[in-house]
Amino acid sequence: MGKIERLTGDLASAIGRERVKTDSDITDRHAVGGLAPSVVAFPKDIKQVKEIVNLAVRDGVSIVPWGSGTKQCMGDLPSRVELVISTEKMNHMLDVDVANLTITVESGVKFRDIQARLATQEDRCYLPLDELGKETDDIICSERTRSGCFLPLDPPFGDKATIGGIIAANSSGPRKLLYGLPRDMVLGVRFVTPKGEIVGAGGKTVKNVSGYDVSKLMIGSFGTLGIICEMTLRLLPLPERMETMILGFASLSEAARFADALLRTKLIPAAVEIMNAGAVDAVCAKAGISAKGATCNVAVAMEGFDEAVGRMKKEMAAMGERFGATARAELDEGGHNPFWLSFGNLRVMDKEKSNDILSVRLSYPISEWEKIYAICDETLASEGLKHTMVCHAGSGVTAIDIMPDGKDRHDLLIQIIASLREGCEAKGGQLTVECAPSQARKSITTFGRPGAVSVIMERLKKAIDPSGIMNPGRFFSLTQQ
Amino acid sequence: MERGELLTSLKDIVGEENVLSSEMDLALYGYDASLERGKPDVVVLPGSTEDVSKVVKLAYRAKIPVIGRGSGTNLSGGTVPVKGGIVVHFSHMNRIIEIDIPNRTVTVEPGVITLDLQNTILKKGLQYAPDPASQKVSTLGGNFGENSGGPHCLKYGVTTNHVLGAEVVLFDGTVVWLGGKSPDQASYDITGLLVGSEGTLAIATKIMLKIIPTPEAVKTMLAIYDSIEDAGNTVSAIIAEGIVPATLEMMDNLVLKAVEDSVHAGYPMDAAAVLIIELDGMADGMERQAGKILEICKRHRVRDVRLAKSDAERAELWAGRKGAFGAVARLRPSYLVCDGTVPRTKLPEVLGKVIQIAKKYDLPIGNVFHAGDGNLHPLILFDERNKEELARVHKAATEILQICADVGGTISGEHGIGTEKLKEMSFIFSESDMHFMRDIKSAFDPVGIWNPGKVIPQRQAANA
Ligand SMILES: Cc1cc2nc3c(=O)[nH]c(=O)nc-3n(C[C@H](O)[C@H](O)[C@H](O)COP(=O)(O)OP(=O)(O)OC[C@H]3O[C@@H](n4cnc5c(N)ncnc54)[C@H](O)[C@@H]3O)c2cc1C
Fold first, then answer.
1. Fold of A346-441
2. pLDDT, tens digit, for every residue of A81-135?
3. Which of B29, B45, B71, B73 most suits a substitution to test ligand 1, by most atoms within 8 Å of the C-beta?
4. Interface mutation vs chain B, best among A186, A210, A302, most B CBs within 10 Å
5. Measured between CA atoms, how close is A248 to chain B, in angstroms?
6. What is the pTM of this model?
7. Which fold has domain A241-344?
8. Is A406 left (phi over 0), alpha (psi -120 to 50) or beta?
9. How many CB atoms lie within 10 A of CB B193?
């Protein structure tokens, strides 16, 4: 009997036959970069995950943790894909403590279900509930509070992603400007280590310095240090009022002057996004909003007390005129929520337009945003490459989807990415390839130069995963075996 | 390595005048703000990253402990050299290296005093949010080491939420930069792991911090109560109502009296408890929020709510809170602060139990703490020379931490584990949790030079 057959049998007796799949339709659905696993396991809780990992350790089989697969194209290709552990069946909200402003959930819980659970009795929610309702009908509606809360994150694929995947990939969105990153929300985690032990850190308190801050290490580790099974997250009261204003400008420099001036006022916007025309048009069309993108646009999310949002709107409209805005669209809550959900799905829409989509994300010191945006936009435009661009002004991140039009532009793309990466790294930044045709994957690394910190990352990975079974090669090619 | 040789080598690195080795010096560096005592072999005062790197390289080769020290105000024994070794005191590395306003960052050496940084950047309309009550004395290196909190951390988060990166010296003297001005990069969050690791994984020689604009408006209120339970219930009611103020601090009667005797902040001496509630942000809507809070206070039988009418009045209210530990310390020769933290909804229940413990062990216990965060600070007052009393103090402290752990809380919210809470680690961590932390420690410290005897208890003998 081969290694995998024996493992499959032992897995079945450990966690139940119905939770262990080798059917090719299922293994194919869990392929990473063309590599399909031999087995997919669907544990029901952290204890079962532990049993699975112990068997994998025994047999030296590599493990790829799987949430909903929205981000499997990120990261380097794992060097081996044998066993996928899906968190799909670990989808329980273990403790919803709105009075304490914390929630504890299993990692397979969908982000949208968390937001829906925290909505008010009148269905005010941080996501557009009516749209979500079509896809899922098991959102729990009892025990809602009058004022509501929300999990202050707005990652891409907000309607599909699981919370475990979001945290493991350290995924965030435009509104981190006001609320911060996953590292600011995660209060505690429970995970299974590559040695097959259940480990917990942190808890339900917002302050905690007991022992090492292990949660921080797990956030953004791309499943290379363990399988995150449960986590406790910080909540905030739902903003009293949520609205968006989109201002169109004839040029980048005008948009930049407006955005930078806005960020210097005492106003507190939740997001200040620079978007090119293609991005605005795609996002608005999907969200059912009639606005049309100008050459360069600034979309501002405003979330807070009624009076504060009112004042922001008034002052921003006046500022817009002063800085030469050519168009202005205002979205109330009914438009705000679909707009930002659709914003997070821009990649999905762009993918539909091109099979060879290449997506990159640049991060850099915040003051560099205009220069970076300009270089990227000009380089791509001069080669006639269609692209959407969004830039979190004030947070130092730009995301670009390049959509080549059929012709073979492979070499050109590789060359462009390399030069943009060089420019970004020269400023102390990083260019991450988030999605690429498999041919291109072979010629460009996902993360670029790992830098001096890789010394420590290697040491940590070795100490925590000595046999190198957890997502090998996924992150900066750590422990390629 | 022989002592003579060690001293000579260190003098070669940092200069004769920056190596302290007299009995008097060693005694001075043998303690911090905790009850723990120890004695280093030698103290060095480095002037640069290069100095630190060379000292660490030497210590690594000779397998001598290295203990980083800022101002020694930590309350858990974090800087006490319990196994001897070299204390690296950062008093000379106290420069603000860069204030980068466009990128909203500052880069400092670890010896910069927290309040000095604050005062420097306030002049530019910006602030560094974490504000430990000890900010006049504590260093940013110490804040980094302990992941310190402070009253405003309720809204703004603790030290780790404001550290963007650091230059650190690793066990073999290698110097690396972690994180930096690009706030959101793909990497293991090593910076996040090092903040709060109490100098047991690496030493920071430069720290990059986030600075934010000062708020447009601030409103500070003093709510006065005739019962501690009412004050505690107000805290969870405010949060449950969907309001997250900038601060929600609480002081009980014992503390109020002590503060009035020494600081004269204008607190009522006969109240059972007061809350300092502060709102900040955009001015719009703040009046209405204050009104809501007033209503909640009234619902919980508040005696009176006073509003600070000027900056001077506001400063006075805060002077009282920030001077509270010092004021209480004047009542008896010694005090021990428990740093137990609970989910905020458990606050009234736990406060009640702390009062019972004070009775049970016949010890005066004062409470002054970050109520909004659920971060208690029962201050147990005693006389260290009375051994029998000291034993009761330790029992009471352990019992308080057990209560916090039992309601889903933790044994330290901001003061750290150090040596003081090693034995209570098992209240919240399993052996496998601690095993994982030991794996982390082994990656950063293969020969065990970094601040030995802190944070993680020794592995239990198999049959012990
Ligand atoms: C009256 C009083 C009030 C206090 N109030 C608060 C409060 O409100 N909130 C709060 O959180 N704490 C408070 N504290 C505790 C204490 O002030 C904080 O822990 C503070 O951060 C310690 O700073 P320090 O410079 O004194 O550090 P030290 O005590 O010198 O060192 C603290 C720890 O950090 C490590 N360390 C020092 N420098 C470095 C470095 N460069 N790199 C790595 N590690 C390093 C040390 O080894 C040690 O483990 C209070 C203490 C007192 C006495």
1. Alpha-Beta Plaits (3.30.70)
2. 899 999 999 999 999 999 899 999 999 999 999 999 999 888 899 999 877 654 4
3. B73
4. A210
5. 24
6. 0.96
7. Alpha-Beta Plaits (3.30.70)
8. left
9. 23
